[in-house]
């Protein structure tokens, strides 16, 4: 479901290969093409090590793609350097899983929030209290936090400060990389409500990386499923449970923990060894673990193809006409 279909950010055939310390080539992301739409949330799910953070770091220009292009509002930002790179950082901001690692522990909350604004020359130092108060209010924290330090706050409060700092530059895109995963469920819920409220009010485009497929279904317009550096399925969040088609996505869904689960039945989990991103299979990355694998799956990487409107999968199975 793409509301307005206004593309803000586009990834074109993006690949990232790392050279490891013993000179092996590790493919973290392979041939990724994606569109981020205005005011929408794009969720990325997949198991640990499948390349989610690497992809987000390339968008943030913290890692250079080995191949491919990242286009923001029609401009290729892949190779920006110097001042152009610095200025572009205003448009795309990130909230990390553990904000304490990205905050200077000796800085007060007021200064953590205002630092990007001062760096860009957008406010004067004497305006810090007033400006920080405004952002604290946006993330529903009182002004009592202005002169506190990050270690004097709870995990949920620190995450709100991370969001306030990201909002300060008025970015069009915010990336959340496992930003709520470490919080307990009730705090996670209130932070997610805050994120969706701020998104609605400010028309922000969000990239949301998460392990929890159930959560992603609830808050994401588009869900991207990754496996071993590849996109295996792209599906509207609202259709995920009913229409997920790729064997890997189906396994992810069937392994979601549910209080009404019948524990006498076998829980679906991935059988077979997950291949190494260094010694990648030449065919489908999921072939080793897939119960539907065919001969062709060993030899040919399936291309991403459109199954129905806004629904794509990379799989050799003959799926016929889909009526969603
Ligand atoms: N700087 C690096 N040098 C070498 N390999 C790297 C580097 N960064 C990531 N990798 C490798 O790239 C692959 C993808 O890593 P990435 O951190 O993107 O996964 P992820 O999906 O975010 O995992 P998680 O869910 O655990 O955060 C992994 O095999 C990882 O070991
Ligand atoms: S391409 Fe083949 S191995 Fe890969 S998911 Fe589809 S059926 Fe399974
Ligand atoms: Mg990660």
| Helix percentage range | 25-40%
The total beta strand count reads: 12
Number of helices: 11
CATH architecture of the largest domain, by name, is 3-Layer(aba) Sandwich
Strand order of the largest sheet: 6-7-8-3-9-10-12-11
CATH class of the largest domain: Alpha Beta
**CA radius of gyration:** 21 Å
Features:
11 helices; 2 domains; binds adenosine-5'-triphosphate; Rossmann fold; binds iron/sulfur cluster; alpha/beta; four-stranded antiparallel beta sheet; eight-stranded mixed beta sheet; 324 residues
Describe the structure.
The chain has helices at residues 52-59, 82-88, 99-102, 109-119, 128-138, 155-168, 185-202, 213-219, 240-243, 247-254, 295-299, and strands at 7-19, 25-37, 41-45, 67-72, 75-76, 92-95, 173-177, 205-209, 222-227, 230-236, 304-308, 311-314. Strands 6-7-8-3-9-10-12-11 form an eight-stranded mixed β-sheet, with helices on both faces. It has a four-stranded antiparallel β-sheet with strand order 2-1-4-5, covered by helices on one side. A hairpin with a 2-residue loop joins strand 9 and strand 10 (230-236). The model has no long low-confidence stretch (mean pLDDT 90). By secondary structure, it is of the alpha/beta class. The chain has two domains: 7-91 and 171-314, Rossmann fold (3-Layer(aba) Sandwich), CATH 3.40.50; 92-170, no CATH class. Helix 6 (155-168) packs parallel to helix 7 (185-202). Bound molecules: adenosine-5'-triphosphate (ATP), iron/sulfur cluster (SF4) and magnesium ion.
